[in-house]
Design brief:
The chain is of the alpha/beta class. The protein has one domain: Transcription Regulator spoIIAA (2-Layer Sandwich), CATH 3.30.750. Strands 1-2-3-4-5 form a five-stranded mixed sheet, sandwiched between helices. The longest helix has 13 residues. The radius of gyration is 13 Å and the shape is globular.
């Protein structure tokens, strides 16, 4: 895993780059949060392909537990991917509600993630 820093004005945003899955469990999410927080980032971009598909099945509670920790530590997150493939009404509602708070963002591209996190 590599952390690529993006600087927009005085804002420092971490983009997670990896050839492998980064979050396969709640513990992985907490480890990532700790790593990012330790390196003095408070905004993170993570690509959907780096997250277990179980994250997008809300019954597993993985998403809720991980995203609650990001909120508690005030670390803003943008997840980049194609979320239209998730047909569940509950995940679509979850994505809509998350995007409305602008603390957790589900976006379609890296430029959109950078724009949302730079505000």
């Amino acid at each position: 895993m590599e952390i690529r820093a993006h600087f927009i004005t005085k804002i420092k945003i971490a983009e997670i780059i990896s050839d492998a899955m980064v979050i396969g469990s709640v513990e992985d999410g907490l480890d990532l949060l700790g790593n990012i927080y330790y390196q003095d980032f408070d905004r993170v971009i993570l690509h959907e392909k780096h997250i277990t598909p179980d994250f997008f099945d809300l019954k597993t509670k993985i998403a809720g537990e991980i995203l609650q920790k990001f909120s508690n530590y005030r670390v803003r997150l943008a997840i980049v991917g194609d979320f239209n493939k998730y047909k569940s009404k509950s995940i679509q509602d979850f994505i809509f509600e998350s995007n409305s708070t602008q603390h957790i963002n589900f976006v379609g591209s890296l430029p959109e993630a950078l724009e949302r996190l730079s505000k």
